[in-house]
From TrEMBL:
GO biological process: L-phenylalanine biosynthetic process
Pathway: Amino-acid biosynthesis; L-phenylalanine biosynthesis; phenylpyruvate from prephenate: step 1/1
Location of the ACT domain: 199-276
Name of this chain's protein: Prephenate dehydratase
Signal peptide range: none
Catalytic activity: prephenate + H(+) = 3-phenylpyruvate + CO2 + H2O
Domain Prephenate dehydratase span(s) in chain numbering: 2-184
Enzyme class: lyase
Taxonomic superkingdom: Bacteria
NCBIfam families, A to Z: PRK11898.1
One example GO MF annotation: prephenate dehydratase activity
Gene that specifies this protein: pheA
Keyword set, alphabetical order: Amino-acid biosynthesis, Aromatic amino acid biosynthesis, Lyase, Phenylalanine biosynthesis
UniProt GO cellular component terms: cytoplasm
Length: 286
């Protein structure tokens, strides 16, 4: 049984981890994402569950920067899970009158996913960001009769004994989050037809057209890239890494050859992981 670190019980990360691994592993919950990372880096847990991308808000840059700068833990799996957010509180306190809600709390990404709803129905409410949706629900639970509500998951409301005041308040129905499982060794999971490799490429400073050369190394081999994104190296202004998701496992012939070609022009390549990729339609728990 593996020990898997993740954000608090009742968070979207918790729902997503149950979807990936079922109940066959021990979940270790932390309030802060930094503690999730450090738990696995220290060896207190075997894996961490990290949300890294959302269809509405895009990349979670803080988490990606942690993967690059703070820990050395390769990707062992990725999966996509719907982020279904609800307005959570106490029915007896609100009594169906939204003017009784004075404050709404949630994680900033979850809050951003529901802004159309908030502007339409709760424009008067104060907004406060906290470390996770589960933490927001916990705070609301501990502060009755203050007109506070949270944006969070169904499992979070159930965990803390609160009510769903309004279900599915996200602004878009295609609101999915991409999670990665990071750890030092693979976790035993059902087979997946889809395989990915994520690499980090740093371009040489004195090579005009280097990015074009990098992309050409994949293009002429007909290797599909599902994502390419730049982030600052934090070394100096104008210096960037490129995250590249490749829809191919590293144990093929073509991908190592492409990486070798990239390195030949002076690029630095760091492999963040080669791993199975699961879509939401593929239920791992079944």
């Amino acid at each position: 049984m593996a020990r898997i670190a993740l954000l608090p019980e009742g968070s979207v990360s918790h729902e997503a981890a149950l979807h990936l691994a079922g109940k066959d592993h021990q979940f270790v919950h932390y309030k802060l994402i930094s503690d999730v990372f450090l738990s696995t880096a220290r060896g207190d847990s075997d894996y961490s569950v990290i949300p890294i991308e959302n269809t509405i808000e895009g990349s979670v840059n803080l988490h990606m920067d942690w993967i690059v700068h703070e820990v050395d833990l390769p990707f062992q799996a990725e999966w996509v899970y719907p982020s279904i957010q609800n307005l959570v509180g106490r029915q007896k306190e609100v009594q169906g009158d939204w003017s009784n809600i004075q404050k709404i709390m949630s994680h900033p990404v979850a809050m951003a996913q529901c802004m159309q709803y908030i502007r339409t129905y709760l424009p008067h409410a104060e907004l406060e960001h906290v470390s996770s949706t589960a933490e927001a629900i916990r705070i609301v639970k501990q502060n009755p009769d203050r007109g506070w509500a949270a944006i969070g998951t169904t499992i979070g409301a159930q965990t803390h004994g609160l009510d769903i005041l309004a279900p599915k308040v996200t602004d878009h129905q295609n609101n999915f989050t991409r999670f990665v499982l990071i750890g030092k060794k693979p976790l035993q999971l059902p087979p997946s037809a889809a395989q990915k490799t994520t690499i980090l490429v740093t371009l040489p400073e004195d090579f005009p057209g280097a990015l074009h050369q990098v992309l050409s190394a994949f293009a002429w081999r007909r290797i599909n890239l599902s994502r390419i994104e730049s982030r600052p190296t934090k070394r100096k202004l104008g210096s960037y890494y490129f995250y590249i998701d490749v829809e191919m496992a590293l144990d093929t012939v073509l991908l190592p050859a492409a990486i070798e070609e990239i390195e030949a022009i002076g690029c630095q390549v760091r492999i963040l992981g080669t791993y199975p990729s699961y879509s939401y339609e593929f239920s791992l728990a079944d």
